[in-house]
Write a structure and sequence with these properties.
Number of strands: 0
Structural class: mainly alpha
Mean pLDDT: 86
Shape: elongated
Largest sheet: none
């Protein structure tokens, strides 16, 4: 029987059974459609159903005989029930088709490409991403194919999926419990290495030793790079389990943080932190396994998937790169690896946004040329796609990077263009940043040229306008930048008291916004201001914190506070310096822990030996 006739008969059968009272529930209609419509032929069924609906509707509208009109109305009602239930059946059929297609692709792919295919068909950015139940169905399909095609790796995929979901179901029960353990005063990924925080909690829940070992490494704030390099014996199923657990963890945390919009300690700030945390972990695993290996390539594939999802969020931080509420050595150099997967992506709007965050991060690492290249590429892509917010953000970032390169004329030029465009488009956040960058650029140029006092006044006026606007908008990142810029302006104009006031507030605001780089810069400049006032104890405290934070994110800026600390050590003598450091030990431990405090003398010595 032709497909069209088959579906005409099926629809008529359901309508007649409904009119005769043989069908009493919508569930029965659903089951008949599920059984009667072949997967992949939904378009034909929809066409036949649509013709029936239109014809019956015309009968209802044209019929004058009350009895015939009532019968046609009942038929129309039955057809609309079919239409409603068909939408659910079609959704189920599409899912079934996706699962069968995914199983077929993985099965028929060359052995060295199966992992890549698996990650593509399970990509959360796909049009119809597989949910947990559908993944379990995929595992069953792959297991059936093991016997048919005699492929051992399919069994590994199947077992890995089942183990990953089982582990996640256990971890899910402890998704946020760690936040409330040991009277924690803040929410984030910090904590005493190996004792608190999420990874130690989650390590106890996962089934596989491979995943548990990585979680224990992360709990101790050690590097996933070394973990990956040291792995000699692990199976494909181990890797699949780890992949699923990490993916579900990331999504679960982001979903929870997204629901905390009115919690100043959580909300979008920690959603941003979560995206970056997991991108960093995968990038380091990719680096550890090696980009030329299947596992290394797969890790980079996941990094790109995370960044793509992140770039589509409304809170994607166009004005912040290293935004995190966690700490640890595993951050070192990590962000420099994130450009690797982008080499394989064409110019898209999401690529422009990802390049923006990478450009900011590269500037923090002191790689100014790379930063400029990222921002210029992002600028061009953003213009082509009409993403004005991203375009203006990159002009602002370029301005800041050019200041670091002491190219003040280009810094002023880019900030002026950003200011004009932001006012034309009504983008107030970009305008606040543009004012901050214009004022900052002009202050630094005036310092170089030893300009008259009124030149500084005009530049500082821009900064104050930016601060006022950012406060009005409630934008913490912009406010932190404006306060930091004002503090530097007052520092170079030899007004240390005003500098300290703005830098201290800037540091607190940067803490709230989660920008580690800006925190480190504020502390460094605070140390300089305190030193100029001969407030040596305060200078030791702020320089030590600034040095440690900047070193932790691999920023070369840590040399500045290290130089000041070395100078203070020479001036005060070893004992006097140690005493000032010890006086501030309790406060410093609150920020960076005992290990961080103990690491400060080593950093100073490292600076001395290399300078």
């Amino acid at each position: 029987m032709p497909l069209r006739d088959k579906y005409l008969a099926l629809i008529d059968e359901i309508v007649q059974a409904t009119l005769k009272g043989k069908i009493s529930s919508q569930g029965q209609v659903y089951q008949m459609l599920l059984k009667g419509v072949t997967v992949g032929t939904g378009e034909v069924f929809e066409l036949v159903l649509s013709e029936n609906l239109n014809f019956t509707q015309q009968q209802v509208d044209a019929q004058t005989d009350e009895f015939k009109k009532a019968k046609a109305t009942r038929s129309l009602r039955a057809l609309k029930t079919i239409q409603t239930q068909w939408q659910q059946v079609e959704q189920q059929n599409k899912a079934t088709e996706s699962i069968l297609s995914a199983a077929r692709e993985i099965t028929t792919a060359p052995d060295n490409e199966r992992l890549t295919i698996f990650l593509r068909v399970t990509d959360p950015n796909s049009k119809h991403p597989l949910n947990q139940k559908q993944l379990q169905q995929l595992a069953k399909s792959l297991q059936r194919n093991v016997e048919t095609f005699n492929l051992k790796s399919l069994e590994e995929f199947s077992q890995g999926i089942d183990r990953g979901i089982a582990s996640w179901e256990k971890v899910q029960q402890h998704l946020i419990s760690w936040m409330y353990e040991q009277n924690r005063s803040s929410i984030g990924f910090g904590g005493v290495p190996g004792e608190s925080g999420p990874w130690a909690t989650w390590a106890k829940q996962v089934n596989g030793e491979f995943a548990a070992e990585l979680f224990r490494i992360l709990a101790k704030q050690e590097s996933p790079v070394e973990f990956a390099r040291s792995q000699r014996v692990f199976s494909l199923s181990d890797w699949v389990e780890l992949t699923l657990v990490l993916q579900y963890l990331q999504r679960g945390l982001v979903n929870w943080f997204d629901q905390q919009a009115y919690n100043v300690k959580a909300g979008s700030n920690l959603s941003i932190s979560t995206f970056l945390t997991f991108a960093v972990i995968w990038s380091q695993l990719g680096n550890g396994f090696g980009a030329d290996t299947s596992y290394g390539s797969a890790a980079w594939q996941i990094v790109l998937q995370i960044l793509r999802t992140f770039s589509q969020r409304p809170y994607f931080p166009l004005y912040g790169g290293i935004v995190a509420s966690f700490s640890g050595d595993y951050l070192k150099d990590a962000l420099s690896y994130l450009d690797e997967p982008l080499r394989r992506v064409e110019g898209t709007q999401e690529k422009a946004r990802i390049l923006t965050i990478l450009g900011y991060s590269q500037r923090a690492l002191g790689r100014y040329e790379t930063s400029v290249n990222f921002h210029q590429e992002a600028l061009e892509i953003a213009r082509n796609f009409g993403d004005s917010a991203c375009e203006i953000a990159n002009l602002n970032h370029l301005s800041r990077t050019y200041v670091d390169q002491k190219n003040y004329s280009e810094a002023i030029n880019n900030s002026q263009r950003a200011l004009i465009l932001s006012r034309q488009t009504g983008d107030k956040i970009s305008e606040a940043n543009a004012l901050a960058n214009l004022g900052y650029s002009e202050v630094m140029q005036a310092t170089l040229l030893e300009a008259e006092p009124e030149t500084y006044e005009m530049a500082i006026n821009y900064l104050q306008q930016g601060l006022s606007l950012s406060e009005k908008l409630g934008d913490l990142q912009s406010k932190a930048l404006c306060l930091s810029s004002l503090g530097i302006a007052y520092l170079v104009t030899e007004k240390p008291g005003d500098a300290i006031k703005h830098l201290e507030e800037g540091f607190k605001t940067a803490q709230t916004s989660g920008d580690l780089y800006l925190q480190g810069l504020n502390l460094t400049n605070l140390a300089e201001a305190n030193y100029s006032l001969a407030s040596f104890e305060r200078a030791v405290y702020t320089a030590s914190l600034g040095m440690y934070i900047l070193n932790q994110i691999a920023s070369q800026e840590w040399h500045k506070p290290a130089k000041l600390l070395s100078t203070l050590q020479n001036q005060l003598g070893d004992e006097g310096f140690k005493q000032l450091l010890a006086n501030n030990r309790p406060k410093m431990i609150t920020f960076i822990g005992v290990d961080g405090y103990d690491y400060i003398p080593q950093l100073i010595e490292e600076y001395r030996s290399n300078s």
